[in-house]
Amino acid sequence: MADSTPQGDAAVAAAAVVSHPAASSKPKRPNYAVIHADPVPVALYHSPPLIPHNPLSLLHHLYLYLFPPVSSHQTAYTGVFSPVTMSVEIRDPQAVLDLWQKGFWGKGSLSRSEPTWLNRELRRLGDTEVGATSEEITRQRRDQRKEMKKERARKEREELQKVKAAEAKGKTSNGSTSNGKPVVADAKVVVDLEEEINGLKDLVGGSLKSSAQTGLPTPPLSAADDVETQDTEPAAATSLPDDATPSPAKQSQATGTTATPSQPTTAVEAPAAKETITPKKITLENREHLQLTFQEAFFLAYALGVLSIRSGPDESPLSLPTILRLFLRYSSFPPLPESSISLSNLNPDNRFLINYVAYHHFRSLGWVVKSGVKFSVDYLLYKRGPVFSHAEFAVLVIPSYSRWEGRTEACREWDWLHSITRVNSQVKKTVVLAYVDVPTAEDVKGWEKEADGLKGVFAKYKIREVALRRWIPGRNRD
Questions:
Q1: What is d(CA 51, CA 49) in angstroms, rounded to the nearest whole number?
Q2: What is the pLDDT of residues 287-337, one digit of tens each?
Q3: Is the peptide bond before 473 cis (omega within 30 degrees of 0)?
């Protein structure tokens, strides 16, 4: 029968509270599909399908052609050319937000990628209205991996203690078991297990750095940290075998008391009181700006027409030929002499032109192109963006001079390519060799007098992609 007494009802209610704890107040992840819905910072509109045999459809398309609902190629953002950082700086906060949300353009000057310095500083100062940043989420994931390694090292240490205890008693053999599991009797395996545990302990201990060095707020001590700290304290009882645990009768004999069978009791923990967090709002000046590479800035200024570039904050906007001349000059380090840059005698072998052609090629195909210097490549290709998934392809831009008479191709050592494929295969990226067929100076001569201008110059470059995959003899036999 069910217990209908008030004490029984209270116990059932308390047990229900314990068995169904309150849901954790984990902040919801932002809806990135809505935030980054626009692939480019240009207003787009969808036209209805064209049906040739339907005259109304033809009239609709004609009306959209003559009176478009939005006007494209309007300058919306202003950048400042910086010869020191060799980039174009965007300092308007709204422009920084738009360019990142609409195509993931640029990089924060004080952040890894997304400009989050202001939010990190506000959270460090105690602002309660700011959510977690990408750097903090990355740090939390790394802390979780450290805890997993520490837990694995603890379990392996326990298994090693069991093996050593069994060997000390002379019970180990090739067919013996311990707790239903076969015991490893090979001394080499025991030594390897000890080395692995020591390596894990050194890895975990050496990777823990203070928050003052990383510049991130110090997280509160978690429950896993408490358990691990208690386990690491010297305690002789934890290393004893199961049969060495003193019974209640022996404990009573040692203390001189009479042991009585204890009644089964249910320990019900009272629900912890909720901590009240006082809302706090902090106002801080944003000291971070967005840095655009030359390829990104030129694509926004030339292909999309939404960016104007100035040489200084109070200067007038630069013309497109002047921007091209600046980027051609500062594309190499140290910068080329100003007298060596001539648009009438354009050098198609300039590094900026080669890299921009590859950048324009992949951006036009819908890829989000970011710098790949972290993985020893030129570009990383994201399918949707860095907040959705990791980059799928790593691109190496290689110039090809098949149309140049008397010029041989630049040769690379095999270990250079092997090191790149090794690095990118470890992070599950496919290396793509983008061969850019460079035209000769005669092919682009007089381009400024033609109607298509730069469009005709870029059309003379040809791109061939070759995907590489690391070949491992022991795995790729078929």
A1: 6
A2: 999 999 999 999 999 999 999 999 988 889 999 999 999 999 999 989 999
A3: no
Q: Which residues 6+ apart lie within 8 Å of 311 measured at CB?
A: 80, 81, 318
292 DSSP β-pair partners: 88
Q: What tokens appear for 404 in the block?
A: 């140049």
Nearest to 444 by CA among 304, 342, 359: 342
Q: What is the tens place of the pLDDT at every residue in 83-113?
A: 999 999 999 999 999 999 999 999 999 998 9
Contacts of 401 (CB under 8 A, 6+ apart): 349, 407, 408, 409, 438
What angle, rounded to 10 degrees, do the helices at 117-124 and 134-168 form?
70
3-state secondary structure of 178: strand
Instruction: Give 184's contacts (C-beta < 8 A, 6+ positions apart).
Output: 163, 190
| Active site residue ranges | 382, 390, 429
Cα–Cα dist 17/269, whole Å: 9
CB < 8 Å & 24+ apart, contacts of 378-386 = 378/434, 380/429, 381/432, 382/104, 384/36, 385/32, 385/36, 385/104, 386/104, 386/113, 386/114
pTM: 0.69
